[in-house]
Structure prediction request, 191 residues.
Amino acid sequence: MVILKNKYFLIIENIKDISLENIKKRFKFNIIYRNNKKLGDLHRLRIFRKECKSKDIKFFVANDYNLSSKLKADGIYLSAYNKDLKYLNYMKSNFIIIGAAHNIKEINLKIKQGCKYIFLSRLFQVSYKPEMNYLGINRFNFYVTNVREKIVALGGISTSNINKMKIVNCDSFALMTEIKKKPAKIFSRLF
Prediction:
């Protein structure tokens, strides 16, 4: 069964985590490069960015405006722990700010930071930390009803529960772990 949403966000930590050849639809996919450990090869990142641009895939860099500028990224992704308001100074018409939140307080902060999309995290239980709390569909849908910004579902979305995305009140969702585990299987479900 195919899951149709307006946008899909793919969070990667290494450009080797994803093959752009699997992405066939234009303008629906967005890639967020989130590498907190070390900076990858800048030359390879530039080549990857150009490939994204040629396939009409928006490219974002997490929490690093300087790297975002060097790569001429479409915008920046602000993690939930990033509470700095300085990114308002970087807003320009073609530069998109997106952010992540876990609760209403963090959603309000991301609105103040000027985020166009806000990732509301842990929709489902995650496999790498099963003891962590998660929102579930009902609480997620309740949070979304009072927010005008576009909310993106994140956390625990896998091939086993992707059909539940039909009843989640959002027009976009993000994948991270599932991209590494089963990329071909998940891509086949998104078309």
Notes: The beta strands are 7-12, 29-33, 58-62, 75-78, 96-101, 117-121, 150-154, 172-175. DSSP finds six helices and eight strands in the chain.
